[in-house]
């Protein structure tokens, strides 16, 4: 039997500056683009369960004629993450194409930079690997503080 | 089931929040959710106390005025002296109240800018990643006065200019793709106090505030995945205050912008969190993949 969640990982994108796969456990698939989605990224629309990308793209297309841009509600008291339409508004406002990382092969009109040409990776200096393990916590703390100081001083 | 009033009882501030309110600054490395909870708690206290400071101050002067009036009246009717004492006592009560409210009143920039910015960037910062942050919420205090001079008076009798430097936010946060973001915000306040004499011979005074917000954002990409496109950086640096630097932990691109605000009082307005996001977008648009995974 075919697994509707295609391996059980949510392929919805999260983030703002950089987009990446959600990676949570998938519970359903989008009825429009067939990407697996987790409970947090499942939106129940008129066509059934859909991913936020498809849902808000439909909403946007439908409301294009009205052209009512709602004020962004950035109430600091709420713990809710930035919603998909908020993200879209930021990208439109600043004409930004986010860098997309992840293995998902579901692309949208925001993913052009996924296909940018690559260059050779720069040689990683000895200090670049420092602070990756929990044992380097103190070192990382000191280096981060140094970085911050240099950044602000310069 | 017995009814309790626990739900409506105001919660005492946590030790960390109390520490911020006392010291008016905090430095530490905490996960995003802890920072947001802590700053939201301080913001809630500030939001509650802020509107009460003004009325408490007005009541001090009101009761002092009444005490003076009753003291004069007491020279004719001795029993009115009691009212004068009561008024003076009420003025003292409101003075203590005002003093306490003032101690919990902090600069609003952290809740108008930083807290909202952290909410916007919440999905980019890993839940377990620790954010280094130094936040100073004291605003322009005497300790931050960097220059005080008398300007040539011109038509005025006297012009005193004071400059305060308030670097209130330094932040470094890891991002979920291995990169790191840096943010520094410095407020520079210039206040001019002008004194002049009008045609009737009265001495008048006027204060003008200028607030210059200098925002510096930086991005250190994970060299395994991303690097800055030098051509794009060179093109963009013609339009913006942009600098690409090589550091021991990788290359860092820094962007600085300045925002000006003017008011007759201490300007409440500041840079919007959306502007900060826009600045990070500028740096993000200069990146290119260093190796295809």
Taken from the alpha-carbon principal axes, the silhouette of chain A is: globular
Alpha carbon gap, first and last residue of chain B: 61 Å
User: How many domains, in number, for the residues of chain B?
Assistant: 2
Overall spatial form of chain B: elongated
Tally of alpha and pi helices of chain B: 6
Rounded Rg of chain A: 20 Å
Residues in helix, % of chain A: 25-40%
Low-confidence segments of chain B, given as residue ranges, are 1-8
Between the first and last Cα atoms of chain A, what is the distance in angstroms?
Answer: 60 Å
**Biggest sheet architecture of chain B:** 8 strands, antiparallel
Can you count the helices of chain A?
3
Structural class of chain A: alpha+beta
Structure, described:
Chain A has 154 residues and is an alpha+beta fold. Chain A is 26% helix and 14% strand. The longest helix of chain A has 17 residues. The termini of chain A are far apart. With 293 residues, chain B is α+β, with helices and mostly antiparallel strands. Helix content of chain B is 37%, strand content 34%. Chain B is built from six helices and ten strands; from the N terminus they run H-E-H-H-H-E-E-E-E-E-E-H-E-E-H-E. In chain B, the strands form two sheets. In chain B, strands 1, 2, 3, 4, 5, 6, 8 and 9 form an eight-stranded antiparallel β-sheet that branches. A two-stranded antiparallel sheet of chain B has the order 7-10. The N terminus of chain B is likely disordered.
Q: Can you give keywords for this protein?
A:
heterodimer, A: 154 residues, alpha+beta, two-stranded antiparallel ribbon, 3 helices, 7 strands, globular, B: 293 residues, 2 domains, eight-stranded antiparallel sheet, 10 strands, 37% helix, elongated, disordered N terminus
Task: Describe the protein's topology.
The complex is a heterodimer of chains A (154) and B (293).
Chain A: E1 13-14, E2 18-21, E3 26-29, E4 36-38, E5 43-45, E6 48-50, H1 52-63, H2 84-94, E7 99-101, H3 137-153
Chain B: H1 15-23, E1 25-31, H2 32-73, H3 80-104, H4 109-120, E2 130-136, E3 145-151, E4 158-174, E5 180-197, E6 203-220, E7 226-228, H5 230-237, E8 241-247, E9 250-263, H6 273-284, E10 287-289
Antiparallel strand pairs in B: 1-2, 2-4, 3-4, 4-5, 5-6, 6-9, 7-10, 8-9
């Amino acid at each position: 039997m075919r697994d509707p969640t295609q391996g059980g990982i949510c392929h919805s994108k999260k983030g703002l500056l950089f987009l990446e796969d959600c990676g949570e456990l998938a519970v359903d698939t989008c009825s429009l683009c067939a990407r697996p989605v987790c409970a947090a990224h499942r939106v129940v629309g008129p066509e059934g369960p859909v991913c936020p990308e498809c849902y808000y793209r439909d909403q946007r297309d439908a409301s294009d004629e009205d052209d009512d841009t709602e004020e962004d509600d950035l109430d600091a008291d709420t713990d809710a993450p930035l919603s998909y339409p908020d993200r879209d508004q930021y990208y439109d406002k600043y004409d930004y194409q986010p860098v997309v990382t992840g293995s998902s092969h579901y692309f949208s009109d925001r993913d052009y930079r996924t296909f940018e040409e690559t260059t050779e990776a720069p040689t990683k200096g000895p200090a670049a690997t420092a602070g990756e393990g929990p044992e380097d916590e103190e070192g990382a703390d000191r280096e981060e503080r140094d970085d911050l100081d240099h950044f602000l001083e310069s | 089931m017995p009814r309790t009033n626990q739900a409506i009882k105001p919660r005492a501030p946590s030790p960390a929040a109390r520490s911020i309110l006392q010291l008016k600054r905090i430095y530490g490395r905490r996960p995003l959710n802890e920072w947001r909870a802590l700053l939201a708690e301080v913001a809630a206290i500030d939001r509650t106390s802020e509107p009460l400071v003004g009325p408490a101050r007005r009541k001090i002067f009101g009761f002092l005025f009444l005490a003076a009036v009753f003291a004069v009246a007491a020279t004719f009717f001795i029993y009115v002296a009691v009212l004068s004492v009561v008024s003076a006592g009420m003025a003292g009560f409101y003075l203590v109240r005002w003093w306490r409210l003032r101690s919990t009143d902090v600069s609003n920039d952290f809740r108008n800018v930083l807290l909202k910015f952290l909410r916007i960037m919440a999905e980019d910062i890993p839940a377990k990643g620790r954010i280094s942050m130094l936040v100073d919420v004291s605003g322009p205090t005497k300790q931050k006065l960097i220059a005080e001079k008398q300007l040539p008076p011109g038509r005025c009798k006297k012009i005193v200019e004071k400059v305060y430097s308030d670097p209130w936010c330094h932040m470094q946060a890891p991002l979920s793709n291995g990169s790191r973001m840096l943010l520094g915000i410095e407020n520079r306040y210039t206040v001019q106090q002008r004194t002049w004499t009008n045609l009737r011979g009265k001495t008048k005074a006027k204060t003008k505030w200028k607030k210059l917000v200098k925002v510096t954002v930086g991005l250190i990409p994970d060299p395994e995945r991303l690097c800055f496109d030098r051509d794009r950086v060179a093109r963009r640096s013609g339009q913006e205050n942009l600098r690409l630097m090589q550091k021991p932990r990788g290359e860092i691109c820094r962007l600085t912008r300045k925002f000006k605000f003017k008011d007759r009082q201490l300007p409440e307005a500041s840079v919007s969190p959306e502007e900060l996001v826009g600045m990070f977008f500028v740096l993000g648009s200069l990146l290119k993949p260093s190796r295809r995974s």
